[in-house]
Amino acid sequence: MTKTPIHAAAMAAAQLAAALLLAAPAHADEAAQMARGKELFSTATPAACALCHTLKDAGAEGAIGPVLDELQPDAARVARALRDGIGAMPSFKATLSEADIAALALYVSRASRMK
Length: 115
Ligand code: HEC
Hints:
By secondary structure, the protein is mainly alpha-helical.
């Protein structure tokens, strides 16, 4: 099927809407970021965090990487590990958007401190 101009315009509009959503002020939607972070953490792809990490709030019991409830990394440390990879942990720069990295960083830093 070839793309009609109308189809292309609709795609562009949808992408613009998505970009505007992502650009919303960070504080406006911490609850949504936390929910997105938890979803990403627990979902098999593309993140797969739960396969390798234990994090009680996410019901994750992976044993390959450090127990995040004990490490309690701050958001910047989580984001760095996700962008650059660390040791046996791959970089997620190619598979996660910046918005998703931010959501995971917020979620992991907060959730690891929850009792
Ligand atoms: C293939 C297994 C694997 C996956 C998948 C994985 N990690 Fe890791 N992670 C590790 C290992 C191993 C380390 C320890 C690396 C080291 O210190 O040498 C680590 C370290 C970390 C650290 C600590 C970084 C630091 O500065 O010490 C954080 C935070 C982290 N992972 C978060 C995540 C998140 C969030 C995800 C999901 C996007 C994830 N990991 C996916 C294996 C994994």
